[in-house]
Amino acid sequence: MPEPIIRIDNIVKRYGPLTVLDGLSMEVMPGEKLALIGPSGSGKTTILRILMTLETISDGFIQVDGEQLYHVKKNGQLVPADERHLHKMREKIGMVFQHFNLFPHKCVLDNVTLAPILTKGMPRAAAEKRAMELLDMVGLADKAKSMPAQLSGGQKQRVAIARALALSPKIMLFDEVTSALDPELVEEVLNVMRKLAAETDMTMLLVTHEMGFAHDFADRVLFFDRGKIVEEGKPEDIFRHPKQERTQTFLRKII
Ligand code: ADP
């Protein structure tokens, strides 16, 4: 049996007096495609941001790819990790955001090559070769020299996916990547993600309100409410035969 690539153990996340996650535990197996669904404010995005080290945790432990994410071992004890450790761990994970977050003053190609060149010290020629392969994969090789402002929302999001892939992460996090798009642009982004899911063995966590896509994409669906996993299972079980009343109510409203 392989080890989980992500092991979240009893984590607590507070923002001031607000406890968003209160003792959450979950595991993700290598290559698994997971969809996190549930009402707004239930903590789904917070989980992705914690994994990306964009937020810290108030308590608990997280293991990623066999190593502690927020801790290092010192004299046999686990102590909070320094920035260098976080930096190393961050390279295992790529994230795509709702609002693209492309660098507006850099062309598409530079957006994709910047991190590999700056953080991994990859030679420019190698970074550009890889970037062109990734842009080709998302159907945007002809836009390499365009500026973000010249692209549609769907194209920007596909560049953001290529950029996240450029560091060859083992884990990809997608945070409501189609919610800011006009409806006619959603499908082109979902198609890229379908292709990624089918053609790579990357572990993927997806926060989404697109229930149809979650159903097709995910091996496992987790339904969150108020910072807790209320129900989890195979997509067909969660979407067709939800057991918990809260899941049933949520799905009745959204579908
Ligand atoms: P979801 O992704 O399920 O919609 P979030 O993880 O975005 O939920 O948010 C969970 C809760 O945490 C919400 O109540 C939200 O208002 C709160 N929250 C998120 N980020 C912050 C922040 N930076 N400061 C204070 N509260 C926050």
Q: What are the segments in which pLDDT stays under 50 over at least 5 consecutive residues?
A: none
The percent of residues in helical segments reads 25-40%
DSSP E strands, number: 12
**Strand fraction band?**
25-35%
Helix and strand string, N-terminal first? Answer: EEEHEEEEHEHHHEHEHEEHH
Shape descriptor: globular
Mean pLDDT: 95
Describe this structure in words.
- This protein is an alpha/beta fold.
- It has helices at residues 44-51, 83-90, 108-120, 124-137, 153-165, 183-199, 211-217, 235-240, 245-254; strands at 6-15, 18-28, 33-37, 59-64, 67-68, 71-74, 77-80, 93-96, 171-175, 203-207, 220-225, 228-233.
- The strands form 3 sheets. Strands 8-9-10-3-11-12 form a 6-stranded mixed sheet, sandwiched between helices. A 4-stranded antiparallel sheet has the order 2-1-4-5, covered by helices on one side.
- The longest helix is centred in the C-terminal third of the chain and has 17 residues, at 183-199.
- The chain is globular, with a radius of gyration of 19 Å.
- Adenosine-5'-diphosphate binds next to β2 and α1.
Brief rundown of the structure:
The chain has helices at residues 44-51, 83-90, 108-120, 124-137, 153-165, 183-199, 211-217, 235-240, 245-254; strands at residues 6-15, 18-28, 33-37, 59-64, 67-68, 71-74, 77-80, 93-96, 171-175, 203-207, 220-225, 228-233. The chain is of the alpha/beta class and 255 residues long.
Furnish the topology, listing elements before pairings.
Layout (H helix, E strand, L loop, with lengths): L5 E10 L2 E11 L4 E5 L6 H8 L7 E6 L2 E2 L2 E4 L2 E4 L2 H8 L2 E4 L11 H13 L3 H14 L15 H13 L5 E5 L7 H17 L3 E5 L3 H7 L2 E6 L2 E6 L1 H6 L4 H10 L1
Parallel strand pairs: 3-10, 3-11, 8-9, 9-10
Antiparallel strand pairs: 1-2, 1-4, 4-5, 6-7, 11-12
Helix pairs in contact: 3-4, 3-5, 4-5, 5-6
Bound molecules: adenosine-5'-diphosphate.
Adenosine-5'-diphosphate binds next to strand 2 and helix 1.
